[in-house]
Amino acid sequence: LAVEQQQVVVIGAGPSGSIASAILRRKGHQVLVLERQQFPRFVIGESLLSHCIDFIEEAGMLEAVRNAGLQVKHGAAFGWGDRYTEFDFRDTFTPGAGSTYQVRRASFDKLLADQAEAQGVEIRYQEEIIAVDNSGEQPLLTVRRLTDGYCYQIRASFMLDASGYGRVLPRMLDLELPSSLPVRKAVFSHVRDNIDDPLFNREKILITTHPEMRDVWYWSIPFSDGYCSLGVVGLEERFVGRPEDLETCLKEFVSEAPNLKRIFKNAVWDQPFRTLGGYSANVKSLHGKGFALLGNAAEFLDPVFSSGVTIAMRSSSLAANLLDRQLRGESVDWEQEFAVPLKKGVETFRTYVEGWYDTSFQDVIYYENPQPEVKRMVCSILAGYAWDENNPYVADSRRRLAVLAELCRSNG
Ligand code: FAD
What we know:
Blueprint: E1 3-11, H1 15-26, E2 31-35, H2 52-58, H3 62-66, E3 71-73, E4 75-80, E5 83-88, E6 100-102, H4 105-118, E7 122-125, E8 127-133, E9 140-145, E10 151-161, H5 168-172, E11 176-177, E12 184-192, E13 204-209, E14 217-222, E15 227-235, H6 246-255, H7 258-263, E16 274-277, E17 282-283, E18 287-288, E19 291-293, H8 295-298, H9 308-327, H10 334-357, H11 360-365, H12 372-382, H13 392-395, H14 397-411
Parallel strand pairs: 1-2, 1-10, 2-7, 4-13, 10-19
Antiparallel strand pairs: 3-6, 4-5, 8-9, 9-10, 11-17, 12-15, 12-16, 13-14, 14-15, 18-19
Helix pairs in contact: 1-4, 1-9, 2-9, 9-10
Flavin-adenine dinucleotide binds next to helix 1, strand 2, strand 8, helix 8 and helix 9.
C-alpha cells in the first residue's frame, strides 16, 4: 500500500474532531481529518451547554455559529407531574457564557467542519480508518476510501481519535472498558411540534420525569425551524413488553406523561424514528504513545444533562493545546495535563447523573424552595461549568449532593 506522511491525523469530523483540528491549525500545525461519512449526516446530541461556547470561540468559529440561525438556549427546565423547575444559564455561580444553542447536529457538525476547513484543515470525507498499527516509532493508519475501495496508509506524528461511537482506537488498540452505568436505551424522533402552550419555553431544553418510573425520562429540544427533538430514555427492561415499532413505542411513552401529551397535542410525526442503546462506555486510558482519545471515543456517561458535546469540546481543547506544545518540542505529561484534569469534570457529571437515577438529584431539582445561591451553583454545573473547583458542588460533589438531597427530602 502507498504510505503518506502526515503530522497530525484526526479520526472523525464531529465536534471533537473539528474543534481540535481547528485549534491546532490556528497554532500553525498541519492537520488531516479522516471522516467515514459524507456530511451532513445524522447524529444525536442536540442540546449544547453554555461552556461549549468557550471552545467554539477558541476554535475561531463563534461568529459563524452566531450567524447560523440556530435556536438560542438559555437553560434547562424539568417537569414531573405538576412539579416544574427552571434553570437559567445566564444566572450561574461560575462566570462565563450564559446562552448557548439547540442544534440539528447534521447541519451544526457540517458548519463546524466547514469552519475548520476554511482555516486550512484538510478533511477527507468518506474515508474510513480500518486498521491501526501502533507498534512502530510512529502510528501507521490504514485508510479505505469508501467511494472506490482504494486503500492506503498514513504515517503520522500523532493521532487524535474523535470517532465518537465508532470508538476506533479503543477497539483497535484494546482499550475498551465497560461503563459503570447500567445499559439504557433511547427512542427518539424529530416532530413538527406546532406547540401553542404559552408555558412552553423554546429557549430551554425540557427534561420530563415519567410519572411513575422515575428512572425513565424524556427530552424535548426545540429547534429554530418549528421542529422539536423528542426522545425517551430508560433501562432496557423498561422497553420489554412495549411495542416493537419505534413510532408506536415513542408515542405510547409520550402519552403517559401528561405535560408532554399536552405540549405535543398538535405535533406532526413526519420524521424517521430511531433508537440507540448501550451508549455508555469507558476506556482503560485516554492517551498512549502517539495518540489521545477525544469526546465520545473516550468515555460517554449519559445523555440526561446534555454534557456529551461539552465534554467532547473540552477534551479537544485540552488535547490540542498540549499537542501544540509537544510538537514544538516541549515535553508534556498527558496523564497529568490531559487525563486527570479532563476526568475532574467528567466525575462531577457522574455524581449528578448517578444522583439523577438514584433520585437524590431529582429531589434537589424538584424541590420548591431552593436557596438562590445553592441553585446558582447547581445551575453552573447544568450549564457545563463542571470543572470550576470554586464551586463547592464541583469540588466536593458527592458529599454536597448527599447533604442537599437530605435537606430537600426532609423539607419537601
Ligand atoms: P461524533 O459526533 O459521534 O462524531 C464522530 C465522527 O467520527 C462521526 O462523524 C463518524 O462518522 C466518524 N467516524 C467513526 N468511525 C470512523 C472511522 N472508522 N473512520 C473515520 N471516521 C469515523 N450530547 C449533548 O451535548 N447534548 C445532548 O442533548 C445529547 N443528547 C444525547 C442523547 C442520546 C440518546 C445520546 C446517546 C447521546 C447524547 N449526547 C448529547 C452525546 C453526543 O451524542 C456525543 O457526546 C457527541 O456526539 C460526541 O461528539 P464526537 O465529536 O465525540 O463524536
